[in-house]
Write a structure and sequence with these properties.
Elements: E1 5-10, H1 15-25, E2 31-38, H2 42-52, E3 56-59, H3 62-74, E4 80-83, H4 85-93, E5 99-102, H5 110-118, E6 122-125, H6 128-145, E7 148-151, H7 154-162, E8 176-183, H8 193-197, H9 201-205, H10 214-222, H11 224-237, E9 244-248, E10 254-260, E11 265-269, H12 275-283, H13 313-324, H14 328-344, H15 351-364, H16 372-394
Parallel strand pairs: 1-2, 1-5, 2-3, 3-4, 5-6, 6-7, 8-9
Antiparallel strand pairs: 8-10, 10-11
The structure holds nicotinamide-adenine-dinucleotide (NAD) and magnesium ion.
Length: about 400
């Protein structure tokens, strides 16, 4: 028997983190947990430390780290508690780590994912914002560092499964015409524009098919999630914007499709349960049990429709940012994060999210962006512009 793979789960207390630990717990001989991290949820990270006995637990918040340290010592666990964003980079790149699950939400997940890439890790990427903010830099780090990049986002995991195993970044070489990302359409798929304008955070977070963190739930409601995924697909599969198509599929059973030159369309289907793509990436190239039931196709209808870019302007804005290149996608992402925060805190309306992003893209996107520093500058400038716009709305 081989030594178990050592895994750092960054964002362990979130929706992807919890699903990852569920799969890991099914394969104790195959995986051992090296590190777990959270922003500030002491109770949940403590429970996870008790169950998985990691070598390190990282809390971004210092006070939360002190609280967790007390709990861990009291319980007699050998886990060492580290604090601050720097520690995330350490547990993502430590020589003893084989696999890093990048499941932090937002651009905050970029430094640790990038460190894992430089260190040549096997990276299970859930944090799509990493590719949206710094796609070219991250992909270059993956190649230079000799890392293995495995997409966890269900659509990209589906495409990864439907592409030939020897795909090496040239879609034309393997006969691909286009990639089709499926979208559920979110909770407002059939809602009138006026209803959407009055939507509350509770309504926006009530996703019909998936239980997810609050930020990605709002992104699904605006369809910015699909926009971010278009950009994610561009970097992961080296696809041009015109090769990436979006298809609304309310049942979330077909997770995405690859259309080949001969007219063949290959899809990956399954129950909407993130443990399937997580298990695929954890076990790759082997298939391991995920605890997910098979699909009942006798009872499962499948339907498809075109996205409505008028009610979901965020999707259009994401294509625009992708086509602009440079720092535009980083600006789009930063403005979106600020607007979603404001919406969740009831400081702006649902429709203001797209308005904020559009305004900020008009104002800030012109910045050049070759280096990480320039992208981070653009991120900061976009956040400042977004806050200013949102403050004015609130007055
Ligand atoms: P979540 O909000 O449920 O969890 C986020 C995790 O990140 C938590 O552990 C939290 O403690 C940690 N975190 C939050 N802010 C942080 C910060 N500033 N620094 C360090 N850690 C921080 O989010 P989620 O739904 O699990 O999503 C995580 C990522 O995976 C996102 O990028 C999301 O787009 C992507 N994703 C999620 C799903 C899903 O089904 N939930 C599907 C596909 C992709
Ligand atoms: Mg997805």
């Amino acid at each position: 028997m081989n030594a178990p793979q050592t895994v750092s789960v960054l964002g362990a207390t979130g929706s992807i983190g919890v699903n990852t630990l569920d799969v890991l717990a099914r394969h104790p001989a195959r995986f051992s947990v090296y590190a777990l991290s959270a922003a500030r949820n002491v109770d949940k990270l403590f429970e996870q430390c008790r169950a998985f006995r990691p070598r390190y637990a990282v809390m971004v918040d210092e006070a939360a780290a002190r609280a967790l340290r007390g709990r861990v010592e009291e319980a007699g666990l050998a886990t060492e508690v580290l604090a601050g964003p720097r520690a995330l980079v350490e547990v993502a790149s430590h020589p003893e780590v084989d696999t890093v699950v990048a499941a932090i939400v937002g651009a905050a997940g970029l430094p640790s994912a990038l460190a894992a890439a430089h260190a040549g890790k096997r990276i299970l990427l859930a944090n799509k914002e990493t590719l949206v903010v710094a796609g070219s830099i991250f992909m270059e780090a993956v190649h230079r560092g000799g890392a293995t990049l495995l997409p966890v986002d269900s659509e990209h995991n589906a495409i990864f499964q439907a592409l030939p195993r020897d795909f090496a970044g040239d879609l034309a070489a393997v006969g691909v015409r286009s990639l089709w990302l499926t979208a559920s359409g979110g909770p407002f798929r059939t809602a009138a524009k006026e209803t959407m304008a009055r939507a509350t955070p509770e309504q926006a977070c009530a996703h019909p098919n998936w239980v997810m963190g609050r930020k990605i739930s709002v992104d699904s409601a605006t369809m910015m999630n699909k926009g971010l995924e278009v950009i994610e697909a561009h970097w992961l599969f080296n696809a041009r914007a015109d090769q990436i198509r979006v298809l609304v599929h309310p049942q979330s059973v077909v997770h995405s499709l690859v259309e080949y030159r001969d007219g063949s369309v290959l899809a990956q289907l399954g129950t909407p349960d993130m443990r399937t793509p997580i298990a695929y990436a954890l076990g790759f190239p082997e298939r391991i049990a995920a605890g997910v039931d098979g699909l009942d196709l006798f009872r499962q209808g499948l339907s498809f429709e075109a996205p409505d870019l008028e009610r979901f302007p965020c999707l259009r804005l994401a294509y625009r940012a992708l086509e602009s290149g440079g720092a535009a996608a980083a600006v789009l992402n930063a403005a979106n994060e600020e607007a979603v925060d404001a919406f969740l805190a009831r400081r702006c309306g649902f429709g203001d999210i797209a308005a904020t992003i559009e305004t900020v893209l008009d104002r800030v996107a012109q910045l050049g962006a070759a280096s990480l520093e320039e992208l981070l500058d653009a991120d900061r400038a976009a956040r400042a512009a977004a806050r200013e716009f949102l403050d004015r709305l609130a007055r």
